[in-house]
Amino acid sequence: MRFSTLMKHPADWMIGKNVNNEVVVTSRIRLARNLRDLSFPGWAKKAERVAAMDKMRPKVEALKVMKNGFSHELSELEPLQKQVLVERHLISREQAARGQGSAAVVDRGQRLSLMINEEDHLRMQSIRAGLRLREAHQLLSKVDSALEKDLEFAYDDELGYLTACPTNLGTGMRASAMLHLPALVLTEQIGQVLQAVNKIGLAVRGLFGEGTESLGHLFQISNQATLGESEEVIISRLERVIAQIETHETNARLKMLEDEPNQLSDKIGRAYGILGYATMFDSKEAFSHISLLRMGAAMGYFPEGTMQACDSMMMEIQPAHLQLHAGAELEPEERDIIRAEILRSRLQTLTAPAINIITNDIVGGSEITGDLNFENE
């Protein structure tokens, strides 16, 4: 599959059909693996990295799930193309900075992505829409088992899988979920929730992982420790915490609708109006307005399909996607203008929010009181 073909098709997890992804947008499982008796990529010389890639890449491409997939060495891609893959969460920012000896292999549905010679020899990840960590894990486990028949991974009976970063020792697994939490942000409860999450050893990151900020009220929550715990224990704990955060976000939305329906309608209506008429947007502002539309869609202000349209817009307006759309590198101000043009065009296809039909006869909704404690969940 060519890069242009990959870009024509939205990822399966972006569409979110028949899946509840109003709060939990995506689930992701990532496994880190290294070849036995070979230097980790960060220590290997170029010739060693190329040799390792040549050993792994054919095995990955031969996987049944990778039939007619996308496979490219990163040195063959333009910087803009690599950044687009980052924005689609198919490769990491760290791998995008690498060149010869690194490759990316992605299945047609963009559910499965294998990064060759990132920080580890193999970084395998599976992404699914909604809270479906177990489905993502099941798919990745099959891939891991299939590759282990042909590739000898570095493993220690006491430490587990050996990885470049000590925090990945053991299972080598990172489980994470991307959550959309606008109501907790607007009601100023988000700090309390995130503090409680940090207390139990889970990590909270921005849209693109470690070191990035939250855009569009999107937060990524994942496990930090992988040593001494089974994959089942890690996933079960994360599922419980994510489900509780989802409940708090849902309650916060209902509380806003119950206590301040006019203010809520105003926020959603203003976001729709601004997106439909503004002539310049930076990423942060655009994401914030789209986030409010997405929340409104989940709460019944818009017809079915609007939430998926919001997810597509969030992808389309990111810097690399904008420049790919324009066919040229753009200065920040040029990107802001084109971003607004795209959003105005998309808003023309969306039905205006049905402010007058929203009622207050919804049971439930409460503020968070006291300290949150996920440890016993």
Automatic annotation (TrEMBL):
The protein's matches in PROSITE patterns, at most eight in alphabetical order, are given as: PHOSPHAGEN_KINASE, PHOSPHAGEN_KINASE_C
Q: What keywords sit in the KW lines? A: ATP-binding, Kinase, Nucleotide-binding, Transferase
The answer to whether the entry has keyword rRNA-binding is: no
- Per its UniProt record, what Pfam families does this chain match? ATP-gua_Ptrans
Q: Taking every annotated instance into account, which residue ranges of this chain make up the domain Phosphagen kinase C-terminal?
A: 23-252
Query: From the Swiss-Prot or TrEMBL record, what is one GO molecular function term?
Result: creatine kinase activity
Annotated GO CC locations: extracellular space
- Which GO BP terms apply? phosphocreatine biosynthetic process
Q: Which InterPro entries does the record match to this protein?
A: Arg_Kinase, ATP-guanido_PTrfase, ATP-guanido_PTrfase_AS, ATP-guanido_PTrfase_cat, Gln_synth/guanido_kin_cat_dom
Q: Where does ATP bind?
A: 26-30, 89, 123, 174-178, 205-210
Statement: the UniProt record of this protein carries the keyword Membrane: no
Report which superkingdom the organism of origin falls in.
Bacteria
NCBIfam families recorded for this chain?
A: PRK01059.1-4
* Family the UniProt entry places it in: Belongs to the ATP:guanido phosphotransferase family.
UniProt-recorded name of the protein: Protein arginine kinase
Organism field = Rubritalea profundi
